[in-house]
Write a structure and sequence with these properties.
With 203 residues, the protein is of the alpha/beta class. Helices cover 36% and strands 11% of the residues. It has a four-stranded mixed beta sheet with strand order 1-2-4-3. Strands 5-6 form a two-stranded antiparallel ribbon. Helix 2 packs across helix 3 (30-51). The longest helix has 22 residues, at 30-51. The chain is globular.
Length: 203
């Protein structure tokens, strides 16, 4: 019922009818279901205004990799997949979800093996894939500033081209993202010599 509800016109009477049917099966009153449908419509409309309709996906439009883990042992379709393209859009998305009491599951390169990026029932999945790029490389200070969704390999190659070394290395370097590396404090192939990922982060 919940999936079907998201795939119809959220503002039409059909959505209200489906909400009534779904909530009766869940033991809720029709009024509660209608209120929930209106609240969800308002949430999705606000998110769409921030990221655009192309980057707010629901139902069958959500790619399957955003609904499960690497081993496909845990699966759950998020209420919506939102793909902000700038740090400001991320902040606005989070503010909207907070105002609506909407839980959010952040997603990076989806290479983790512990199902940490699998959304819980009813969560909004926030993908950082579009938040990619190198903002600054300072060879004098030996620092590189990148966006959270930048693949590890992209950062390694930029550092190498400037005569620097990003010491952390993982087998998933081509698809894992810096934000996830930092959030999970990744170790990788050179961890004994250079330490964990957060040892490479300033601030």
């Amino acid at each position: 019922g919940a999936k079907e509800e998201r795939r119809v016109d959220r503002s039409g009477a059909h959505a209200a009818d489906l909400s009534k049917s779904a909530c009766c099966r869940a033991g809720l009153s029709p009024g509660t279901a209608l209120n929930n449908a209106h609240a969800m419509s308002a949430l999705l409309d606000e998110l769409t205004r921030i990221v655009g309709a192309t980057h707010l996906l629901t139902g069958i439009d959500i790619p399957p990799q955003h609904c499960t883990d690497w081993f496909q042992t845990h699966s759950c379709e998020p209420r919506a997949l939102v793909r902000p393209g700038t740090p400001d859009e991320v902040a606005q998305v989070m503010a909207i979800c907070h105002r609506h009491d909407q839980p959010v599951t952040p997603q990076g390169g989806l290479t983790g093996l512990v199902a940490g990026a699998v959304p819980a029932q009813g969560d909004v999945a926030l993908s950082l894939t579009r938040l990619s790029g190198i903002e600054e490389l300072d060879t004098s200070a030996g620092t590189i500033t990148v966006l959270a969704g930048t693949p590890l390999q992209t950062v390694q190659e930029a550092a190498r081209a400037a005569g620097l070394l990003l010491a952390v290395d993982l087998g998933a370097r081509g698809s894992c993202q810096i934000g996830g590396n930092v959030a999970t404090n990744a170790g990788g192939n050179r961890v004994i010599r250079y330490g964990m990922f957060r040892d490479q982060v300033l601030g």
